[in-house]
Amino acid sequence: MENERFGKPFTQQEPVPEEGIAAAVEILRSGRLHRYNTVAGETSVVSLLEQEYAAYQGVKYCLATTSGGQAMQIALRAAGVKPGTKVLANAYTLAPVPGAIYAAGGEPVLVEIDEDWHTDISDLCMKAEASGARYFMLSHMRGHIADMDAICAVCDEFGITLIEDCAHTMGARWKGIRSGNFGRVACFSTQTYKHLNSGEGGFLTTNDAELAARAVVGSGSYMLYGSHGAIPDEDVFQRVRLNSPNCSARMDMVRAAILRAQLPMLENNIARWNERYRALSRGLMEIRGLRVPWRTADEAYVGSSFQFQAIGLAGRVPALVAACAERGVDIKWFGDDTPHAFTSRYDSWEYLGYLPNLPETKRVLSTTCDIRVPLTFSVEDCAQIAKIIAQEAVRLMENKAVE
What we know:
Helices cover 38% and strands 13% of the residues.
């Protein structure tokens, strides 16, 4: 049917597992919600979560934070970013990334993206040389992992510290290596629309002992760092504990309890997301005028969101968004001059104090469409969504041809 309508909300997540609800209720009844509010011999639920996530990620150290944005700010400061420090960042990202750089005192140097939303390696080299930046906040935006061999080679060539924003790639891999394990430090989000859901929350992971100690103290440990779950030895803290400002960015016990119940389910959920992603891809990849970028065999992605380019509707993407919305399909567009909801284009971040000239990024984003893929959708739902998008896209392109 040409007028069928999709009836499920695109923001509805699955419920928190009963185990997590029970654990959270027990904490609420105790009144001891702060991560350091423990009795003698007791290990904080947050510390247990840090141990478990470090084991999952395959790293030595993990810090649980109030948000992914706070994890990024702390990571930048712990890595050595100071006021005026230039920090490279791919231009296709969400506002918390340049926001974290700015909040840490850094000056973002935005880098072009290529046709598949990856960092443009040649522009990265040019910007690294021209700016002298020695930090790169790499955002694996919407789960698309760039050629990490090439990224790491550039960082090695220019002596750049790589910081990974893995908000959209928790559980993903590149050539078998977990996303987040390429740079000196990685940041993850557990905000509602990410792969683990605590409403707000995040992780910082690293194998660098000094950076980990600085991050723990910087998160606001009140010298209670010894109770954390995945930290370096005391001698490392003795070197840094008086040199890191308190950012008060600690995760609380309730959120940790909610996340501990979800972590064992993550790998199975990744498989479920990817089934839904493939259904969307199958439904759109053969539609003339729509482009679904090819995912290489090197990239083990997590399909928790879906992107395509409406190249056949250049200049008319808002019409596609509106037509699909009439049929219950919520598409976000990254090409709008004005930010809407979670989307914003790099040239809307006026606080940066300059307007970057990034013609390739602007061109690619002008036709970039984005869809959330919650696990409350079935595979059949995703096939229906793709069918509706395809019908509306074809209709608009046919009308354009007649005009």
